[in-house]
């Protein structure tokens, strides 16, 4: 039967995590330091399992290797995308990620990490670190060595509904009081540059990765140029945030009945608000805030009837 693959969340405790994944989405979280929901993941550090249908209980890793037809028989050795929801109850460490070429050599063949953020919700004066002010590698190193963080780091005020594209090489960090959906390459490689001298539960400061961070940071910083497109159609407004070699990311604002056709071998959908009915071949399935699912290759058309906001990605 043609159907969506609904996925169970995988929660990750983080030093900066909180309770928003429960408070906002109603998830049954493991602790009051729950920082991440790996919502659609085939990464070995937190693979999703299928909730429904003939593949119930299978991990996304198993599906990718055993049933490539679900994904259009891809050439990628690993499922290339990872969808997360992050609860930054306090500031995240200042960090940077490598590109594919650097990660392949230095991280045992792991993918690089280009990512992007959709701000679901945030406190009134919330901000994030996006880029830096150093004009040369020498200046960057000097500011890091001297701990001139206020001078080095570029802070940006944020608001719900905004979108930020974070290519590999970009210095970045989410700030306190931010709830974000992150679409990224399927990678868990992070180089910490600064962590506010915090100590973990055992009283240890967390490891920094300055040498690798200096290797991969884009200097000077330049903002990624985005060409955001908005298309209004029957029952839906579709916003295209970004479309490149790594992923395409869209927002669906649906109010009424909206029909869709597949534009990629498979489609990842995260419902951020509201509820609706998903129709595939006239079979109805309810979807609601907090649901995450994949529309596999055999599902070439579908419709949604209701009122929802969703973030959607394709490879």
Descriptive overview:
The structure is a single chain. The protein is built from six helices and 20 strands. The longest helix has 9 residues, at 137-145. Strands 1, 4, 14, 15, 16, 17, 18, 19 and 20 form a nine-stranded antiparallel beta sheet that branches. A six-stranded antiparallel beta sheet has the order 2-3-5-12-7-10, with no helix packed on it. Strands 9-8-11 form a three-stranded antiparallel beta sheet. By secondary structure, the protein is mainly beta. The chain has helices spanning 20-23, 60-66, 100-106, 137-145, 149-152, 210-216, and strands spanning 5-8, 10-18, 34-40, 49-50, 81-88, 94-96, 115-122, 127-132, 153-157, 163-166, 172-174, 178-185, 191-194, 229-233, 236-243, 248-261, 267-280, 283-288, 292-295, 301-314. The model has no long low-confidence stretch (mean pLDDT 97). The protein has two domains: 5-216, Sandwich (Jelly Rolls), CATH 2.60.120; 229-314, Sandwich (Jelly Rolls).
Tell me the radius of gyration. Answer: 20 Å
CATH-assigned fold name of the largest domain: Jelly Rolls
How is the main sheet built?
9 strands, antiparallel
Q: How much helicity do the residues have?
A: 10-25%
Strand percent estimate: 35-45%
Number of helices: 6
Number of DSSP E strands? 20
Q: What is the class of the largest domain in the CATH system?
A: Mainly Beta
Order of helices and strands: EEHEEHEEHEEHHEEEEEHEEEEEEE
Binding site for Zn(2+): 97, 115, 172
Domain Phosphomannose isomerase type I catalytic: 6-105
Family: Belongs to the mannose-6-phosphate isomerase type 1 family.
Keywords: Isomerase, Metal-binding, Zinc
């Amino acid at each position: 039967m043609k159907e969506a693959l609904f996925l169970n969340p995988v929660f990750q405790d983080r030093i900066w995590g909180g309770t928003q994944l429960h408070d906002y989405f109603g998830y049954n979280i493991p602790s009051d330091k729950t920082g991440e929901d790996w919502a659609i993941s085939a990464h070995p550090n937190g693979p999703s399992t299928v909730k429904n249908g003939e593949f119930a209980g299978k991990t996304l890793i198993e599906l990718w290797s055993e049933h490539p037809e679900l994904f259009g028989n891809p050439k990628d050795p690993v499922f290339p995308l990872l969808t997360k929801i992050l609860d930054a109850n306090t500031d995240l460490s200042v960090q940077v990620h490598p590109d594919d070429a650097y990660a392949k050599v230095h991280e045992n063949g792991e993918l690089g990490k280009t990512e992007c953020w959709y701000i679901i919700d945030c406190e009134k004066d919330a901000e994030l670190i996006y880029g830096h002010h150093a004009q040369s590698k020498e200046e960057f190193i000097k500011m890091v060595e001297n701990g001139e963080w206020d001078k080095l780091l570029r802070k940006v005020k944020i608001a719900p509904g905004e979108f930020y594209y974070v290519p590999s090489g970009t210095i970045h960090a989410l700030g306190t009081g931010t709830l974000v959906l992150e679409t990224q390459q399927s990678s868990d490689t992070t180089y910490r540059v600064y962590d506010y001298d915090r100590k973990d539960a055992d009283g240890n400061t967390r490891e920094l990765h300055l040498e690798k961070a200096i290797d991969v940071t884009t200097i000077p910083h330049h903002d990624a140029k985005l060409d955001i497109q908005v298309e209004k159609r029957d029952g839906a407004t579709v916003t295209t945030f970004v479309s490149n070699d790594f992923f395409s990311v869209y927002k669906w604002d649906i109010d009424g009945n909206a029909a869709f056709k597949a534009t990629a071998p498979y489609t990842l959908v995260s419902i951020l608000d509201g509820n609706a009915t998903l129709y595939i071949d006239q079979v109805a399935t309810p979807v609601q805030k907090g649901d995450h699912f994949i529309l596999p290759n055999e599902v070439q058309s579908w419709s949604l009837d209701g009122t929802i906001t969703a973030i959607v990605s394709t490879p």
